[in-house]
Amino acid sequence: MASSIENNNEKLTLKSSDGEEFLVEKHVALQSTLLQNMLDSDCSSADVIPLPKIDARTLALVLGYCKKHADASSSKQGELNSFDSEFLKDMDMGALFNLVLAANFMEIKGLLDIAAQKIADTIKDKPHQEVREIFHVENDYTPEEEAAVREENRWAFEGFP
Amino acid sequence: MSLTMMSRKSKFKYFEPTAVDRISECPDSVLVHILSRLEETEDAVRTQVLSKRWRFLWTFLPSLLFRYNAYDDYGGEGEGEDFRVARNTEFVTFVEKTLFSSDCKLKKFGVEFEYYPRFTSNVDLWTRFAAGKGVEELSIQLWPDDTEYELPQLLYDNSWFKELRFSHCRVIPGGNVAWYSLKKLSIGHVKFSNDVIERILAGSPVLEILELHNFEGFSRLSVTNSCVKKLILSEFLNIWDDSGLEISAPYLLSLEMSGRLGKNCRLTNVSSLVDAVFNCDFMCYADDRANDYERIQNIVVVFLASLLHVKNLTLGTWAIQVLSIMEAKGLSSPLLNCKCLTLDMEIDKYVLPGIANVLKSTPNVETLIMTWSLYGWRLYGIESMVLLNYNEEQYWTSQKWTYKCLTLHLKNVTISSRLMNLMMYHRDSNFFSFIQFLLRNARVLQKMVISTPSDDRLKKYFEAAKKLLSFPRSSPDAAVIFC
User: What sequence ranges are listed for the domain SKP1 component dimerisation (chain A) (predicted)?
Assistant: First the structure.
């Protein structure tokens, strides 16, 4: 608690790809290894830190996650777990990928893991045709190539038409 | 709210880039990270058919996990041995191909299947390959037909391993064991001598968690490594050996014992222990249970006496049943210092006197947790249960004893949803009368938290909840919470 009061006046400004600025407490920003490294290397907190690949909506979500995790004490793991699952509930695939990309860029391991897990859970046990649709992947195999790839690992495709 | 969002534009546009753009922008490493969250490797391998970009992504997976059980296959067909051998052979081919296609440093390799001696050279090759790749977590869980797989000698000298899990493997190190980075070791369905377990412990200087299940052969477990914090034991198979198992672990913080642990087990030095789960039982002679009772009672008393200092204590059905018989004979449990007591059992007439016995002997208990896991469901000999022929309806109301823990310390009671499920199913009046007794006598109780059963017994549950709420409470602050 003491540290968060101490750091209260220390804030930094993050700028999203679409030009929104977010004022963030330092202890919240430290959830991101990227920002931590920038602060450690004497990057002035007066500067505005641009995050060119993260839009405002995603950044607001990311910071919401960081704030919750920065403020919760480690003894409240159960509470954090339920926050995490609630946090991603009903999120569509586009938003999830935005989060994964942001977490990957900002190096927020916990967020990267839960968002990646959510995506993995969505495609688990689904036939590849459906996964293609979910991921908007365009099939660039010829039918012959596709059949050959399937044949190569027949075991994995058992039960999947 | 300290997170301030300063919006320079009056409205920001949500979600311009489509999912299509985002996924094509995703670096391969992120896609591999997503694939690595899939539980089984074959789910990840299947994504190779999505598009050419996905063709080889799975070869960068840091962990490869394979599991196959022919019995789950095609309904009843799994019964035939020829069928199972053929299917397991296909599985082995798949594992091999996938493993050898791996194109990165492997962190984790795990395999679980029905093992036949014809697969020896395959499994040897995999473990050799995985070890060569610097695997940190290795799990080999086999279901043998008759002959068990023997771990290759090269595995005993490996400083990459952090976590090892073996089941139905013969563990016979020829020389010293050198697992200098190993943190967690789980071995099951194994027989080894005192000498082997000693060499394993001597060669694992940073080991933190040791789990042994369905084990036999040795009689002494001396854990002197100061890093080992947790020991989990279940099913010690030396059932004819009178001396049983002797455990000495002076630095151990947590001990969990479940299942049948042979004929006897003694804790000679567990002076640092904070958490203990005594949810095991011991073999007694089926044909002479009445006479064997003294021996059993002695084991329980000695066992509890070595857990006097433990802060968080869990007792299972079997131990409590023995305490019930002791209570009927007017014998009390050793005085225990625990602050948090967990009763892992169904609340029936065979455990009520045992619960009374333990409440008398735990004057400092502040938290009482009641739960039910299947492990503890063991009955002590029926013969001695004759002693427990009493009127259970009036058991708690007839109690004249003043329980120190209830008068002075008990603040929290938690009842798990598993136990609630069971109690709703049986509509067990013993359970309700015990709760009624607690509410009436716990003078400083602050909170009783009752978890909702997880299935369709909600209607009964609401009836029960109404009943529970109507019970008189002696503590003015007691809140009964349903969650």
Answer: 109-156
- CA B67/CA A152 separation, integer angstroms: 19
Distance from CA of B117 to the nearest CA of A (A): 22
Identify the closest residue of chain A to B10 by CA–CA distance.
A20
Question: B12: which chain A residues are within 8 Å (Cβ-Cβ)?
Answer: 18, 20, 56-57
What ipTM did this prediction achieve?
A: 0.89
Name which of B3, B8, B57, B68 to mutate to probe chain A: the one with the most chain A Cβ atoms within 10 A of its Cβ.
B3
pTM: 0.86
Q: What are the tens digits of pLDDT across the range B42-69? A: 999 999 999 999 999 999 999 999 999 8
Inter-chain CB proximity B3 and A24 less than 8 Å: yes
User: B37, B55, B67: best mutation site toward chain A, by most A Cβ within 10 Å?
Assistant: B37
Distance CA B264, CA B254 (A): 20
Closest Cα in chain B, distance from residue A153 (Å): 7
Please write the tens of the pLDDT for every residue from B11-52.
333 444 455 556 777 889 999 999 999 988 999 999 999 999
- In this prediction, residue B71 carries a pLDDT of 77
User: Any long-range contacts for B431-435 (C-beta under 8 Å, 24+ apart)?
Assistant: B431/B347, B432/B464, B432/B467, B432/B468, B433/B392, B433/B393, B433/B395, B433/B396, B433/B397, B434/B347, B434/B352, B434/B355, B434/B396, B435/B468, B435/B471
Ramachandran class of B41: left when φ > 0, alpha when ψ lies in -120 to 50, beta otherwise: alpha
Question: Is the pLDDT at B467 greater than 50, yes or no?
Answer: yes
Q: Nearest-CA distance from B232 to chain A in Å?
A: 23
Which pLDDT tens digit goes with each residue over A64-99?
A: 999 999 887 665 777 888 888 888 888 888 889 999
CB–CB of A135 and B7 under 8 A? Answer: no
CB B161 within 8 A of CB B181: yes
- Cross-chain residue pair A25–B15, CB shorter than 8 Å: no
Mean pLDDT across chain A: 85
Residue B228 in tokens: 């080992």
Q: What is the distance of C-alpha B38 from the center of its chain? A: 23
Q: List the single residue in A19, A94, A121 with the smallest CB-CB distance to B22.
A: A94
Do B30 and A140 make contact, defined as CB atoms within 8 angstroms? no
Minimum-distance CB partner of B3 among A67, A119, A146: A67
Which of A25, A100, A141 is nearest residue B51 as measured by Cβ atoms?
A: A141
Contacts of B414 in chain A (CB under 8 A): none
3-state secondary structure of B360: helix
Compute CA distances B64 → A157, B126, B130, B182, whole Å. Answer: 17, 11, 10, 19
Amino acid sitting at position B176: N
Give the closest of A55, A67, A120 to B34, CB-based: A120
- Average pLDDT score, chain B: 87
> Does the pLDDT of residue B239 top 80, yes or no?
no
Q: How confident is the model at residue A57 (pLDDT cuts 50, 70, 90)?
A: very high
The tens digit of pLDDT for each residue in B443-461 reads 999 999 988 776 666 677 7
pLDDT computed for residue A125 by the predictor: 86
CA distance B1 to B18: 31
